[in-house]
Amino acid sequence: MGKRSVSVEVTPKQRAVLEPLTRAKVAPQRLVERCRIVLMSAEGRNNEDQADELGVDRQRVRRWRVRWVGASAALVDAENGGANGKDLEKLILGVLEDNERSGAPSKFTPEEVASIIALACEPPAESGLPVSHWTPPELAREAMKRGIVESISPRQVDRFLASRTCDRTRVSTG
Length: 174
Fold this sequence. Notes:
Number of helices: 8
Distance between the termini: 59 Å
Radius of gyration: 25 Å
Number of strands: 0
Mean pLDDT: 89
Helix content: 55-70%
Low-confidence stretches: none
């Protein structure tokens, strides 16, 4: 027999926010799933039953049940403090969104990325290159030559350009 599930309570105002989200046609499915977990938990359903019905693992159900319980006091305080429906919805969406994920900090500043993209928007001839289109290796070399960055790989330059924020016809990926 597994651990006893954490008890979840949902106020009528919270339910009025959560229920429409479970039926929303344009809401992200992860949000719909999380709303359903909270509502099913409030009905007293155990993690295993929810996991089976939703087609997910019990750990996911447990995670969102615990997250909701951890935020319950703040949600109730907001309601008691006069939060309107929109404010409460923002708070609930905040509880149900993904946490920041760990990982290495970005190696390039937004200014460096913007400068590289701006460089890609310039005709290569302005840099004295006898080509009509930039390639990622040429852009990487020119960015280092101009002191935009100390070092950068052509692949990283190509990832920056994938956003297509300038006239991509001047950049050849081949």
